[in-house]
Amino acid sequence: MPEKVKKSTLAVKVFKWSGLLLLALFILFSVAPYLFSEGEVAVLREELLFANSDFVEIEGIELHYRKWRGDNGTGKNVLLVHGLGASTFTWRYTAPMLEETGMRVVAVDLPGFGLSERKPGLDHSAGARGELLWVMLEEQFPGRQWHLVGHSMGGATVTAMALQNPEQTESLTLAAGALIPPDPSPFNQLLRYPPAAQWARVFGSRLIADESRVEEALTLAYGHQPTEHELSGYYLPLNIESTATTWLDLLKAESDPLLDQLPRLDLPVLCIWGEKDLLIPLEQGRKIDRLLPDSNLIIIEGVGHCPMETAPDRFDRKLAEFLLGI
């Protein structure tokens, strides 16, 4: 057989077997993730209830919230919204302090976080969450005006709420508010392919169940190693069944163009940032502050991403001064 024909035959065989190998790998990639369990540690929501826990079903989603009643001598109603991976536990110092001033306070767990329901396929955009919380507030506490306070991811939610319903929003507080979305990632588009999403769910559930990784994340956010109480406050809710599904849906959520709409917010705004925030850097706070018509930026020196937890005396004092001054 001529040398040229041999080479051509060999090339055809290589191409054929390469194609078959790629097809086999594709089938393996598409089928294999469904053979693994998600490996979640089952923690029952009922085991984590607080003395003032309450639940309400809003548009088919069961939300967990907590109330601090106060005597409302101030006439002020405050909504507290947590950040990524957190819950009402975030506000364990802030809510009682505001209650002591006479304010009525509500802290809510966003869908899929804390003790709220994990429901697949939800829209976790800031706008969708904002609309859901307005329905909840009007159903449970009709006719009230609200001071909205959001930390990190929750900052985007309360900003969307203020834009959606300015007539019922008395003020807005952004504690390290995550209003600047990250650059788009091809990974997010890949998650729209069901087997890729299932792989993410399998590995994600194992990461969430890894206490040491949660501890590392908290250490980065706090700027110091968390105590056992702090760690359990975050770790245990993350191990409620189907939490990984929420995180997967969150990665697929569209980012709301909030920055462009900030000049529309004609209301008092407090931006409060930790000087050493490594997750939502202070420079982002400065940019947000510049875009707002009526904003005051407060910097808590020497602390990181969670000043309400790591420097509660200073954070709560600044927040109370702002709210009582309106």
Uncertain spans? 28-35
Number of domains: 1
Strand order across the biggest sheet?
1-2-4-3-5-6-7-8
Give the biggest beta sheet.
8 strands, mixed
Helical amount: 40-55%
Gross morphology is globular
Mean pLDDT: 86
Oligomeric state: single chain
In CATH terms, what is the architecture? 3-Layer(aba) Sandwich
What is the CATH homology-level superfamily? Answer: Alpha/Beta hydrolase fold, catalytic domain
Strand residue percentage: 15-25%
Question: What's the β-strand tally?
Answer: 8
Number of helices: 12
How are helices and strands ordered from N to C?
Answer: HEEEHEHEHEHHHHHEHEHH
Radius of gyration: 23 Å
Structural commentary:
This protein is an alpha/beta fold and 326 residues long. The protein has one domain (45-324): 3-Layer(aba) Sandwich (Rossmann fold). Helices cover 44% and strands 15% of the residues. It is built from twelve helices and eight strands. It has an eight-stranded mixed beta sheet with strand order 1-2-4-3-5-6-7-8, with helices on both faces. Helix 3 (126-140) crosses helix 4 (153-164). The protein is globular. The relative contact order is 0.14. Mean pLDDT is 86; it is low at 28-35.
